[in-house]
Amino acid sequence: MSADPLSSLDRSTLRERALGALRSAITSGRYRPGDHLGEVDLATHLGVSRGTVREALRHLQQEGLVTAGNRGMLRVNEISPTEVRELFRVRAALESLAVTEIIRSADRTRAVAALREALARLESTEGDFAANLEADLNFHLLLCRLSGNSMLVEAWRYLEGRVRVTIMNYESDEKPTMMSRDRHLPVVEAIESGNVDAAVGVLEQHMAFAAEQYAPADDAA
Fold it and tell me: How far apart are the first and last CA of the chain?
């Protein structure tokens, strides 16, 4: 396994903490796509039982971060270019619903103010990849939360791990350009304008551009 040992856990809320530690190791790039996740090694690294690790891995399978390979061996999931494009199409659908509900709500002005604060955080983190990634994801999560639709937020959070893996494993000599303030500003301006069709169109273009950056069409199988 390519990763360094993870820190040992105390005995409280072991399953939740093991799950959080493993999820973080995957979404941060510490474990790379295709890495084998052995129960014995992980249990030793985390200082928990194999059963606790097994439960955590089962949960990560449900999230799409872990998959069973040959003879049932668990590995970090490899997200194909086709899956990346599908992922961003689903995000486009979810976040289009979010901007629609924000525009139609009585709190649109307050929502725009909150989103502009999120834009400022995006701008302040440019040049720091890890901080910029967090600011980017927080912007989109805020967008969903401001819709007031809890099921929408839950659906978005379900996809978050795979979004992180996609971005963390982006291989290029150039840094991703999707996480800049300027890329997100048109979304906020479209919401502020109150035009649902325009806002949805801007959001869909944003996601289509992201999909092309992380999974160029010439990489399609």
Answer: 28
Which residues in 20-32 are b (16+ Cβ under 10 Å) and which e?
A: ebbbebbbebbbb
Question: Per residue of the chain (221 residues), what is the pLDDT tens digit?
Answer: 444 556 555 554 788 889 889 988 888 888 888 899 999 999 998 888 899 999 999 989 888 889 887 777 899 988 899 999 999 999 999 999 999 999 999 999 999 999 999 999 999 998 888 899 999 999 999 999 999 999 999 999 999 988 988 888 776 656 667 899 999 999 999 999 999 999 999 999 999 999 998 887 765 54
Q: Which domains does the chain have, with CATH numbers?
A: 14-76 (1.10.10.10), 81-216 (1.20.120.530)
